[in-house]
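Morning run. Coffee first, then this:
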Amino acid sequence: MPDVRRVGVVADTHVGDLLPRLPRGVLDALDGVELILHAGDLTTPRVLDELAEVAPVLAVMGNHDRAAGLRLPEELTVTLGDVRIGLVHGD
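And here it is:
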């Protein structure tokens, strides 16, 4: 992964489940990040598409994602330079 200095982290967006769409404020808050980590409960793949318009996205499975048919890893470890980040939904 290229030199990433600014990472955005989101979770439990529940689009299509609890919300009709990703709130504009979420996208605004992520403006300028170089990587987005989503810690599960997307509930629809279109969240990944919307977030990918801002920056590359890595995501893990949340407990609501199976019912939506999403296939994501249960956990990820991301290494950025000398920093390691563990990503898991944690239910």
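The two ends are 28 Å apart (CA to CA). Good start to the day.
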